[in-house]
Amino acid sequence: MTAPIKTLAEIEKMRIAGRLAAEVLEMIEPHVQAGITTDELNTICHNYIVDVQQAIPAPLNYHGFPKSICTSVNQVICHGIPNDKALKDGDIINIDITVIKDGYHGDTSKMFVVGKPSIMAERLIRITQEAMYLGIKKVKDGARLGDIGFVIQQHAEKHNYAIVREYCGHGIGAVFHEEPQVLHYGKPGTGEVLKSGMCLTIEPMVNAGGRHSKLLKDGWTVVTKDRSLSAQFEHTILVTDTGCEILTLRSDDTIDRIVIAE
């Protein structure tokens, strides 16, 4: 199936939803401290989305998901359910935010560090963000999805990390998950051709150990099979004639200043 092309009116709604999602991540950052629980982070984000932004937290009740955000700590790859376990010094956590505003979705996530991270965790987080940025830089009218997946996979594997293959990015708009599937591995010159007006997420999940994952009994939480650390970053992207627009860009994003370490 071909990804839908957004109208100018739809694109404007996507910009608004994307900006709101980014603002939630900026808002929650000072709260990510040792001693706070992920359920408390969920409550803070939920109240901000509903009361301040007058928007809807998309994950809540989505196919039965019980919370308003996803909180994936340490070896959790994605879809971690907020709970009453307190964060501790050295933890790394991905917070994944999706808001619905005026019927359209903005979807984004980033890694946070609690206290002082290990050198290994810090490196994993940096390489994962760089991989996402490299994928984003491949987005333009006429590019192919395999071009994006290839550069992401190449960067992760060059640093002896593994790309999770069971979960991927996706088209997005009035529907949370629409066509196409955006794999974070692949071959250049393969896959669907991108066209101006498409919206999609790029959200590589990178493991410090092996690539294999395991779904826990709660039906949502995905962990690394070997219990190694995992990291993820995500942005919602609009394909344009000359490149792309990051609809969920934050003030701390460094894509324009990125230097890829060899």
From TrEMBL:
The gene is map. Monomer. A divalent metal cation 2 binds at residues 107, 170, 203, 234. Substrate binds at residues 79, 177. This is Methionine aminopeptidase. Pfam families: Peptidase_M24. One of its GO terms (molecular function) is aminopeptidase activity. It catalyses: Release of N-terminal amino acids, preferentially methionine, from peptides and arylamides. Its EC number is 3.4.11.18. Binds 2 divalent metal cations per subunit. Has a high-affinity and a low affinity metal-binding site. The true nature of the physiological cofactor is under debate. The enzyme is active with cobalt, zinc, manganese or divalent iron ions. Most likely, methionine aminopeptidases function as mononuclear Fe(2+)-metalloproteases under physiological conditions, and the catalytically relevant metal-binding site has been assigned to the histidine-containing high-affinity site.
